[in-house]
Amino acid sequence: MKGQQPQNKFSLSDIIGLEEAKDTLELLAKKCIDKECRVGILLWGPPGCGKSFLIEVIASVYDFEIILDTSSNLTSRYVGESEKAVQTMFDRAESIAQTGKPVVIFIDEAESLLPCRESTPDYKSDVVNVFLISMSKSSEYPIMVVLATNHRDKMDTTVLRDGRINNHIFVGFPKIEDYKLLWKMYLDKIAIEDGAKISNDVAIDELADLSYQKLTPVSIKAICEELAMVTQSKSGKQGKIEHDRLVDAISKRAHRIGNELDEFKETLVASARQSDMNGDDDL
Ligand SMILES: Nc1ncnc2c1ncn2[C@@H]1O[C@H](COP(=O)(O)OP(=O)(O)OP(=O)(O)O)[C@@H](O)[C@H]1O
Ligand SMILES: [Mg+2]
């Protein structure tokens, strides 16, 4: 398979944990390339846990062209403009796919482009209609349509069913073992790439315990990068990142992103309630 060539920018081992999500995405990517079936995917979960990263990596490994946008870019105040933007995205994907190259259309913050139609004005419903029509027309090409959201409960349910965006993949917090790997990976990375010095007193297991479900992978990465920069600018090349500095950074960052993560937990409850009401397992 093309995807195994060494020049690819990323490999699946760059993603810590998320084994099930990786396996499912690999399977769906292969199906898409073989044009076995229409592939529509929803990645949902808390912010900063790897939804966009998974697609970036899968696209790199399986040599997909990515056409990517956020809903805020696609959504226009002017009537008809959002529909046009969606249509243009699919047209571009089709023209690339016609050359034989597989394409992934990736729409982030999908709940604002494709919201529940019952609770939104008509002009938003038109966007949903255009999306559904464009998606069904694109099914004869190797095009994978991926939506990402932190708010599955706010999305239009017809988009998420009926053989459309019907592969729902939850991308949640990593397991405790994966927190250890994340700390190790991002500390090693700043040591190699930025020349940061890590003190011998750094205890990865404790960092993992303290940050488990309080920090996301992206915030672990950000702490490492910020401390590398601050330590070097204060103490020069010899400055070391000490364990206590990391512990302090974890507590400050956990406090800062706490509200955002609590908000997501409420979404999770709403989503579970919706599944119960619909009487189905997946949605
Ligand atoms: N599981 C992971 N393993 C390694 N690095 C990760 C992982 N998850 C996230 N990251 C790092 O965090 C960065 C941001 O993650 P990403 O943008 O994929 O989060 P997201 O789930 O899309 O967030 P949002 O909901 O805010 O869009 C990635 O580019 C990557 O560097
Ligand atoms: Mg994202």
Order of helices and strands: HEHEHHEHHEEHEHHEH
What ligands does this structure carry?
A: adenosine-5'-triphosphate, magnesium ion
CATH topology of the largest domain: Rossmann fold
Approximately how much helix is present in the residues?
Answer: 40-55%
What is the number of strand segments? Answer: 7
Instruction: Tell me the structural class.
Output: alpha/beta
The main β sheet shows up as: 5 strands, parallel
Strand order of the largest sheet: 2-3-4-1-5
Rg from alpha-carbon coordinates = 21 Å
Return the domain count.
2
Q: Return the CATH architecture of the largest domain.
A: 3-Layer(aba) Sandwich
Protein architecture, described:
It is built from ten helices and seven strands. The chain is of the alpha/beta class. The protein folds into two domains: 12-172, Rossmann fold (3-Layer(aba) Sandwich); 176-265, Helicase, Ruva Protein, domain 3 (Orthogonal Bundle), CATH 1.10.8. The strands form two sheets. Strands 2-3-4-1-5 form a five-stranded parallel sheet, sandwiched between helices. It starts with 18 loop residues before the first helix and ends in a 5-residue tail after the last helix. The structure holds adenosine-5'-triphosphate and magnesium ion (MG). Residues 15-18, 47-53, 108, 150, 171, 174, 217-218, 221 line the site of adenosine-5'-triphosphate (ATP).
Summarize the entry for a quick read:
The chain is of the alpha/beta class and 283 residues long. Helix content is 53%, strand content 12%. It folds into two domains: 12-172, Rossmann fold (3-Layer(aba) Sandwich); 176-265, Helicase, Ruva Protein, domain 3, CATH 1.10.8.60.
